[in-house]
Every structure is written in C-alpha cells, then in structure tokens.
Amino acid sequence: MTSHVDSQLAYRESVVPRDRGDVREIVESSGFFHDFEVDVAIELIDDALAKGERSEYLFVFAERDGRTVGYSCYGEIACTRGSYDLYWIAVREEHRASGIGGRLLAFTEERIAARGGRAIWVETSSKPKYEPTLRFYARAGYEIAAVLKDFYAVGDDKVVFVKRLG
Amino acid sequence: MTSHVDSQLAYRESVVPRDRGDVREIVESSGFFHDFEVDVAIELIDDALAKGERSEYLFVFAERDGRTVGYSCYGEIACTRGSYDLYWIAVREEHRASGIGGRLLAFTEERIAARGGRAIWVETSSKPKYEPTLRFYARAGYEIAAVLKDFYAVGDDKVVFVKRLG
C-alpha cells in the first residue's frame, strides 16, 4: 500500500477502523445515497478490515490536514480479466466543487492501471438528480457504454460509463 | 411456494438439501461454467437453505419422474423496483435440446411476472461457445439491451439481454 501527496491532498490506501465512521459521514453528507446504500458502503469497509489484502474491495482515502475528505472504493469485477468497477467515490459535502473528486478519481485510475486494469466501469442513474454525476464522469473522459432503459424503476435508467486505460 | 405440472415436467420452488448435489451435477454437466462459478451456484443454494424466504435468491427446479433435470435461479436486483436478474438457468446435459430449458424459462418468467416484475435481465458472453445461449434467449423473446465491449476479457464482450413483461 502506498501513500502519496498531491498539492495538500494525501492519499492513503490501507483501511483503518476509524474509516467506518468517516465513510459514513462522507457518504451521508453527499445526500446522494439511500440509507441501505450507506450500510453497504460500511459493509465494504468491514470486509476490507476483516480480510486485509484478501478483500476484493480496494480503497483510496483522500486526506487534507489529517482529515479524510473523500474516498473511492473499487475492485476487479469477478469473472473478468482487467475490468474494474468503481463502486463508490464520494467527497465530504463541504469540500465539494473544490476539485477533490476529480483528483481522487485520477489517482484511483492510476492505481487501477498499475494493477493491470484495462477498463473502469461505472454505473449510475439517469435521474435529473445525478446530472452532476454524469457531467463529472464525462469531464474525466468516461464514455457512455450503455443505457439500460427503466432499469432502476420506470423512468430511471441505468447509465454505464467506461474508461479504457492505456 | 407452488408446485406445478407441465407435460411430464413438475416445477418445485422450495429449496431442499439434496438440491446442493443436484445443482452441482447439473451445472457441471453443462460444461459451460468454470469451477469457481459452480461454487457460486452452490453458495446461492446454501443462502436459500439458511435464510428461507428471506433469501434474495429464488429458484425453480424442473423435475421429471422425481429427478431434478434443470433449474433456474433469479431475484429482484438490489436498488431496483421490478427489475429481475436471471442468475442461472441450466439443464442436465442428457436432457438438453429437449425443450426443457425453454419451458423452465417460460415458467420462471411467469413467476417473476406474478411477483410484479417489470423486466428480466440476463448477462452472457459474446464468445462463440455461447452462441447457443444467445440463440436460446433470442428465441424466447429477449432483446439485446447492451453489448459491453471487451468486458470479460479482450475479445470477450458482455451481452445484456432484456425481456419486458406485461
């Protein structure tokens, strides 16, 4: 696991127990996730805490002045060779629109490339609430690979983005 | 849970311990699945045996003369309303090409519709080996919703089928 500093942001990849509370705060602060989704975010931290390097879930925590301000969670998709899923990326509400999300995403992409990842897949919703999310990925060079109509609910499509690496 | 007879085929929806061995035999006999995928198939049976009706995995077992000749496993996809995933459908090798797969699929679709399912999603591989699988779903009225290029590996795309119900 590496640690890396990028203009006042430090990146940490090892998971520590206090990440449970920080991740809950970060994910809840975003206002983008349902309660059951917050629970899933914590379960993935618990999986990594319990299994260490055997966990299929990998993390990057972005820290500023010793405080965790955002994080990403990713992993190689089962039954694939080199396809990674970006399960989560979230930044504390009070730090949003400061560029942290884009830098955290770029660092996460570097880590995936270093592991031999060929492609990063991201799934999100087509609902108007997620327009900033769609713009975020488009700006970062992600392309829409598929739109699954009415997937989440009637009128709520699944949008699948992909970024090919290397 | 219901039981239903359809021209020498009986359908059973409750999971019993001997399904562990039968599912392993059925899935291995097909020759379509890797060892780790066979393990996953058994884990889903174990989940249903342990949790009963609280399991998110639902099953249909097709029986002929008291023997389980095929099965399907499906469930509502997390975070969706009415989107179902058909995780598995497999028929014993010696009973293939006898129409059991199509009848088992049709019965499974009826059960999903009865639960209020709006759509059934199926994921498969684009590799030549799976051409019979692609034809099976096309014949059953499934449409290709997306093709995710090089998803499983270079040259091995993910094909997403959907069938809208009702």
Quickly list its features.
eight-stranded mixed β-sheet, 8 strands, Aminopeptidase, alpha+beta, 166 residues, homodimer
Helices and strands in order:
2 copies of one chain form a homodimer.
Chain A (H helix, E strand, L loop, with lengths): L2 E4 L2 E4 L6 H12 L4 H17 L6 E7 L2 E10 L6 E9 L8 H15 L4 E7 L5 H9 L3 E11 L2 E9 L2
Parallel strand pairs in A: 5-6
Antiparallel strand pairs in A: 1-2, 2-3, 3-4, 4-5, 6-8, 7-8
Helix pairs in contact in A: 1-2
Structure description:
The structure is a homodimer of 166-residue chains. Chain A is α+β, with helices and mostly antiparallel strands and 166 residues long. The first copy, chain A, has two domains: 3-76 and 89-117, Aminopeptidase, CATH 3.40.630.30; 119-166. In chain A, 32% of the residues lie in helices and 37% in strands. Chain A contains four helices and eight strands, in the order E-E-H-H-E-E-E-H-E-H-E-E. Chain A has helices spanning 19-30, 35-51, 100-114, 131-139; strands at residues 3-6, 9-12, 58-64, 67-76, 83-91, 119-125, 143-153, 156-164. An eight-stranded mixed β-sheet of chain A has the order 1-2-3-4-5-6-8-7, sandwiched between helices. In chain A, strand 7 (143-153) and strand 8 (156-164) form a beta hairpin. In chain A, helix 1 (19-30) packs antiparallel against helix 2. The model of chain A has no long low-confidence stretch (mean pLDDT 93). Chain A binds chain B through residues 34, 36-37, 77, 79-83, 118-119, 121, 145-154, 160, 162, and chain B through 34, 36-37, 77, 79-83, 118-119, 121, 145-154, 160, 162.
